[in-house]
Amino acid sequence: MAYSSIITNSYVRIDQEPASVGHRVLARTIDSLLLFAYVLLISVLCGIYINLTEKKEIDLVLAIMIVVCFLPALCYSLLWEVFNRGQSPGKRFAGIRVVMRDGSPPSFSAYLLRWVMLIIDLYMSCIGLIPMILTRNNQRFGDLAGGTLVVKENDFRGIQLIFHELRHLTEDYHPIFPQAEHLSLEQMNLIAETLSDKTNKRSQRIHQLALQARSFLKIETTIPDEHFLRTLMRDYQYYTLEEI
Question: Is the Cα dihedral 109, 112, 114, 120 positive or negative?
Fold first, then answer.
């Protein structure tokens, strides 16, 4: 299974697993059954009411039927995803959710593009299955247009927790080591991985990496090793965000 990588603002790489084609087909099948049941129920109720009402009121009943039944049915996917954070009942049952490629919740325009592209993906002989099978992240045309992914729910919860825990730089932050600007993303990932090490060699790894960083950046400081590495990450983040 392919993974889609996210680089957070703290320059830690996070992998999220796209939902399989099978999970997406299951979700769509459940949504279609629920939608069919809804339309059938409203149609039966309206039919009963029409039989009990006068002919002159039939046009009004039909208008109400269109508004109450067919418009929500037409916008079923859009409404559920917008108001339920990327999940329809079918997606919830299948344990999947719509997100942006960076793991954040989609914007309304992204949801709208996905919904409009259903005309091609679903209603034109299910042609959307082709890109879902061929693309690395199992994206249909609507996903490609909206810049979205459908991922497993467990991955989504983990990513949101990480995003919540990461602290963004404050506006009045001033970098300590200007040399951090010359570090690479790979070096930042190495620092992050070393700081998150939970083995008994963590202190040794941090000390060795701090020595290498001081030598590479030509920095003379008495700051403790771990604090020094965390400061480098924060400074690197500051300079990178300044360039955006």
Answer: negative
Task: Tell me the residue range of the domain where 204 lies.
Answer: 178-243
CA distance 146 to 92: 21
Q: Are 67 and 8 in the same domain?
A: yes
Give me the count of residues in the chain. Answer: 244
> Both 11 and 66 in a single domain?
yes
**pLDDT values of the chain reduced to their tens digit, one per residue, 244 residues:** 555 554 444 444 555 678 889 999 999 999 999 999 988 888 888 778 777 776 666 777 777 777 777 788 889 999 999 999 899 999 999 989 998 887 778 899 999 999 999 988 887 767 888 889 898 888 999 999 999 989 887 655 555 544 544 445 545 678 899 999 888 878 888 998 899 888 899 999 999 999 999 999 999 999 999 999 999 988 887 777 655 4
For 3: left if phi > 0, alpha if psi spans -120 to 50, otherwise beta; the answer is beta
Map residue 226 onto helix, strand or coil: helix
> What is the Cβ-side half-sphere exposure of residue 195, based on CA atoms within 13 angstroms?
19
